[in-house]
C-alpha cells in the first residue's frame, strides 16, 4: 500500500502523476496563495495532511493544545496581513480551536481554522460517528464566515473564498470544514491543477468619499483641543509612514491603544500616554484611527470622557459608526487610503493646535512621568511590579526590535504603562476581549513569523492557561524568553482563607514558592530564578543574547497587585453580609 505522501496513481516511469487527491489539493491551494506555515495539532483525520504539508516544504508547527495553535495563527495573521492557518482534528479539537477563532474575529485578526470532520450524512442523522459534531453550524456565530468543502474539485475555490473572507474589509476568523472523505477523494491531476485559485487583490483599497474627507478636515481644523487616538487597526494597516506624517504635520497630540504602541515611538514628543485621563476628558474633537469605542474606551461616554465630544472615526466597516455614540464625521475606507486622503487635504496652511492645549498636556505629562520615575526607582524587597518592570524596561530599551507579548491582570496593566515600544506591531496582548491564555501561542506565532526574539511578560495566573507550550518552544528551538511574575496567586497570593476550618486554600491561591523555571529546564531550556531587579535584568540580558528558550521566575511580593488590575470597577459589588 502506497504512502499517503505519494501522489496516487504515480509510477516511477511517469514524469507527473495522472491523479491527485484532496490531501495534495489542500496543500497546493495554500501554497498557490503564498501560505507557507500551518499551526496545529495532529490526529484523526488530519495527521497525513500535516505530514504532507511538511513533505511539500511547508512548516507545520505542532502544539500541545489547539487553542494555543489558533492564537499563534491569529497573531501571524495580524503581523503579515495574510490569514494564519490553524489545523485541528474534529469535535473536541475543533472546539479547542474555536476559542482562538472567536478571539481572532473579535480582534479583527485574519485567521482560518481548518478542521477535519465527520461526514455530512452521518452528522445529519446523528448516527454516532467518531467525534461526530455539526462543526460548521457551531462555528458560524464565532466566525466572520464558515464554509464546508464536499468535493475535491472545489478545494481550490473553497480555500480562495476562505482567504478572501479572512482578509478583506474588516479582517476576521474564518472556519473551513473538511470532511474526512474529502481528503481521500481523487481527481485527474490536470483537472486538479486547473481547479486551484490564486486570489487576486484580496484586500482591495476602499477609497473614502471626498465629501467625507472634507467634513472630517473641517471638524479637525475647527477643534480647540484635538486628539488622535490610534487603535491596533492602525498598526495592522501598515500605513506607518503616512500615519506618522499625519500626526506630525498636524501637530495634534496622540494616544495609542496598547497594541498600537510603537506605531510612533512611545517617547515621541506628541505622545499623550502619560496623561491619558486628562486628554480623554478634555479633548473636544477626537479622531479615531483603527480604534473602536468599545469597553476599552468606556464606550465613548461617561466620566472618562468628561464633557461633550465630537468624533471623527476612520473605519472600514460602516456599521461600526454610531455603535455607542454619535459620530460627527465618519470616514469609511481602508486606513491607508483615508489617512492618505487626509494628508492630501490638509495642505500647508493647517494651523497646529493652540499652545495652551499642547502646553497643558506637556505639563501633565512631565509631572506624571516624574512621579512614575520616582516610583520606579524604589527598590523594595521582595520586588513589586514597578521595580521588576524597571529592570525589564531598561533591557528592552536596548532591543527595540524584540516582540513583546504581555498578559495578566496587573502584569498587563503595569507593563503597558512602564515598558515603552519603539517599533510598530511589536506588542501583542490580551486585546479587545481582554482574555488570558494568549501568551505562549502569541509568542510562538510571533517568533516563527518574524524570526526575531520574543519576550513574554506573564502573570503567573495567565501563564497557566498555555504553559505546556514551553515544550513546543523548546522543541522548535525558538528564541522566546518567558518572564513570570510569581506572586503565588490570581491577582495576589496573600488573600485569606475565608473558611479557616475547611480543607482548601483561598480561592485565589497557588502553590507558595513555585519554581516555574524548573518547568523549562525539564524540556531542555534555560531557567532563571530572580528575586531582585539586578538578578532579573541580568537574566533577561543573558537570555536574549543566547537566543534560546528561557524562562525567568521573577519572585515578587505576594501582596503586590490589586484584584482584576485596573478593572476592579467591572467586578459586581458584594452584597450585604450577616
Give the termini distance in whole angstroms: 74 Å
The main sheet comes to:
6 strands, parallel
Number-wise, the strands total 19
Helix content: 25-40%
Regions with pLDDT < 50 over 5+ consecutive residues? none
Classified in CATH, the superfamily of the largest domain is Thiamin diphosphate (ThDP)-binding fold, Pyr/PP domains
How many domain modules?
3
Strand content: 15-25%
Structural class computed from helices and strand pairing: alpha/beta
Count of DSSP helices? 22
Features:
578 residues, alpha/beta, Rossmann fold, six-stranded parallel β-sheet, 22 helices, 16% strand
Detail the topology: elements first, then pairings.
Blueprint: E1 19-21, H1 22-32, E2 37-40, H2 47-55, E3 59-62, H3 66-80, E4 84-88, H4 92-107, E5 111-117, H5 120-124, H6 135-139, E6 145-148, H7 155-167, E7 173-179, H8 180-184, E8 186-188, H9 189-195, H10 210-221, E9 226-230, H11 232-236, H12 240-250, E10 254-256, H13 276-282, E11 285-289, E12 310-315, E13 329-332, H14 335-346, H15 355-377, H16 385-396, E14 403-407, H17 410-418, E15 427-429, H18 439-450, E16 454-459, H19 460-463, H20 470-475, E17 480-486, H21 517-522, E18 526-530, H22 533-546, E19 550-555
Parallel strand pairs: 2-3, 2-4, 4-5, 5-7, 6-7, 9-10, 9-11, 11-12, 12-13, 14-15, 14-16, 16-17, 17-19, 18-19
Antiparallel strand pairs: 1-8
Helix pairs in contact: 1-2, 1-7, 3-4, 3-18, 10-14, 12-14, 16-17, 16-22
